[in-house]
Amino acid sequence: MINISQFTPKYFLLTGLPGLEALYSWFIFPFCSTYLVALFGNSLILTVIKKNNSLHQPMYLFLAMLAFAELGVSASTLPTVLGIFLFGANEIYFEACLLQMFFIHSFSIMESGVLLAMSVDRFVAIYNPLRYTSILTMPRIAGTCAALMLKSVMLMFPLPFLLKRLPFCGHNTLSHSYCLHSDLIQLPCGNTRPNSILGLCIVTSTFGLDSLLIVVSYVLILRTVLGITSGEGRRKALNTCVSHICAVLVYYVPMISVALVHRFMKHAAPAVRLLLANVYLLVPPVLNPIIYSVKTKQIRQGLIQLFIQRKH
Fold first, then answer.
1. Which one of 18, 136, 154, 186 is at 20 to 30 Å from 196 when CA atoms are compared?
2. What is the value of pTM for the model shown?
3. With pLDDT > 70 as the criterion, what percentage of the chain qualifies?
4. Contact present, 12 and 92 (Cβ < 8 Å)
C-alpha cells in the first residue's frame, strides 16, 4: 500500500509574471503603491465612520463592512505578491497556502454579500424613506453584518480540509501569485469531485445569487424612482445610488473580464492573464475608498475633519 502522505507537498511554487522576471523591478513601485492606497484608503474610511457619530447609519455601517472586507482581501494577498516581486520568494508552505486561500475567498464572499446588502439599503431608503431608520435598525444592521461574516466563514470552512485529505502527484506549481481554490483543485490526483461540487455551489450561491439580487434591487429602485413625480426628486434619489453602482461595477466588471480572458483568450501570454488576475483583486480595494470619498459628501467632510484634527 502506498503511503498517501508522501504525495502531500511541503510547499507550493507561486507564479509571478512568466517571461518578465527581468522586469520585476519595474513592477515593485506600482504594486507597492497600489497596496498602500488600498490599505490606507480603507483604513481611513473605517476611522472616519467610527469617529463620526453622524455616520452611524445603515448606509455608512455597510460601507464600513465593505472597507473591512477589502482590507481583508488586500492583506491576504499582500505577503505573497510583494514577496515575489520584492524578494523573488515564490514558495509558500502547504498549510499557509490553504490558510491564504481560505481568507481570500472568505473576504471576497463577504464583499459580494455586503454589496447586496447595500443595494437593499438603497431600495429601502428610496421606496420608504420615512420608515428607513425604523426598518433598518441597529440590531438588524448588526445581525446582517454578523450573518455575512458567518456565511463567508462557514461556506469556506470545509474546503481546506477537503483539499488536505487529497494525495498530490508531485506537481506543485500554482498559476497565480497567491493561492486560489480553482488553482489548488487542479493539482491532486485523487477524487476531487466533492471539492468541485462544493466550489461550484459556493460560487453559485454567493457571487451568482448576489449579482442577480443586486440587479433585482435596482430594477425595483428604478421602478420606484420613475414613480416619483418631481424631476428633482428623481435626480436626488438616483444620486444616492451613484457610489454604490460604481462599487458594484468596480467589483464585477474585473471579475467578468478575467473570466472571459481565461475562457476565450487561452492563447494570450500567461503574463497578461496573471497581471489581470492581480488587478482583479486589487481594483475594488483601491477604487472604492476613492469613489466614496469623492461622491459622498458626508465621507468627504469626515475626512477633512479627521485631517484637521490630526493637524492640530
1. 18
2. 0.92
3. 94
4. yes
